[in-house]
Amino acid sequence: MIERIETGERSSKIVKHNGVAYLTGQVAEGETIQEQVRICLDKIDALLEKAGSSRNNMLRVTIWLADMKDFAGLNEVWNAWVPAGHAPARACGEAKLARAELKVEFTVDAAYD
Q: For residue 101, what pLDDT is reported?
């Protein structure tokens, strides 16, 4: 069975299937990469909770940066947020994002009970 949570015209915030919760891409506005990352990670925490999961259960995270020069700033916040011993598989690349003010976008897949 597929469960969709907060489904809109374009996407669902969460899609659950076979023990995996797939979160829609998360972006945030802010002046610095660190600020945008913190806001995104707060949003991810809330969605994971709503899905019956947590950051301890993350399986895979894909991160898109508008500019790879922000890689160190991303990791500064990311490394403090990821629980020790529970780092997911991760990919990070550079991409043109939907709006010029966006510096980062995250997609997360996580196991749930």
A: 97
